[in-house]
Amino acid sequence: MKILKYTIALLLSITIASCSSDDDGNTEDLTGQTGDLILKFDNGVGDQDFIFGTTYTKDNGETYQLETLKYLISNVSLTDSDGNVYTYPAEDNIFIVSEANGNTAGEIYITLEDVDAANYTQVTFGIGIDQERYASGADGQGDFLTTAQDEGMMWSWATGYRFMRFDGTYTSETETDAALNIHMGSVGTAIDNYKETTLTFPNEVLVREGNEPSVHIKADIAQVFDGATSVSFDDGYAQVHTDETTTGVIATNMSGIFSVHHVHND
To answer: Does the keyword Transmembrane apply (predicted)?
Structure first.
């Protein structure tokens, strides 16, 4: 009996040691590691792909076509599984998502380079330019000021950035192929339309050295006009520029158009 007890005890000790060893081996040391992360923005209208020149119908029956679709994304940050927040470097943390730059699948890539390695569960980003960045003046914008000017994403420096540009035409009961120009943004410091949104990933995004995961973000353009507030082009929303009321409504709607469709940990 003593031999049997000793044998069982020895086997248990080996098993426990083996399990402990396996656990230690599964603890990944990410210290000092960085990796790239791709955010893929994919514009659509409801369950349809967005295509320039295609006619889309709003909830109230008005229709529209767009020939320009672009918006600003900034202040991207990532939250990991332990609640730690990684913020992309400020000088590079502003991007233009332009449908004209989409690939054959209609995706616009934003590549975040040298991100701290971690298991990320959420992404947060702003739509437009926050007041702190704006307050840094023209010199504080770096190369992006020229980029924004070239892309038609500014009224003037004193007035500020266009956070979005949707240009095209619309048709209603009273108008046919009338001009449609949605140029929402902040107006200096008088009107602040900067908004942020946080999206939770369906599974953890594993940023590692030598690995390049991607997050597929859907943007439902229909929600710009039929989101938190449904708007009518005939009631002043065909020309949105610097008016406090119309820009505020569009800014709130715009912040709700994004969702994460899926994640690839390739």
So the answer is: no
259 by DSSP, 3-state: which? strand
Instruction: Report the distance separating Cα 225 and Cα 159, nearest Å.
Output: 24
Tokens of 55: 């006619």
Distance, CA of 50 to CA of 253 (rounded, Å): 18
Against a cut of 0.70, is the pTM above it?
A: yes
* Structure tokens, 215: 């997050």
Q: What is the pLDDT along the chain (266 residues), one digit of tens a residue?
A: 444 444 444 444 444 444 443 444 456 888 889 999 999 999 999 999 999 999 999 999 999 999 999 999 999 999 999 999 999 999 999 999 999 999 998 999 999 999 999 999 999 999 999 999 999 988 888 899 999 999 999 988 778 999 999 999 999 999 999 999 999 999 999 999 999 999 999 999 999 998 899 999 999 999 999 999 999 999 999 999 999 999 999 999 999 999 999 999 98
Residue burial 72-109, b: 16+ Cβ < 10 Å; e: rest: bbbbbbbbbeeeeebebeeeebbbbbbbeebeeeebbe
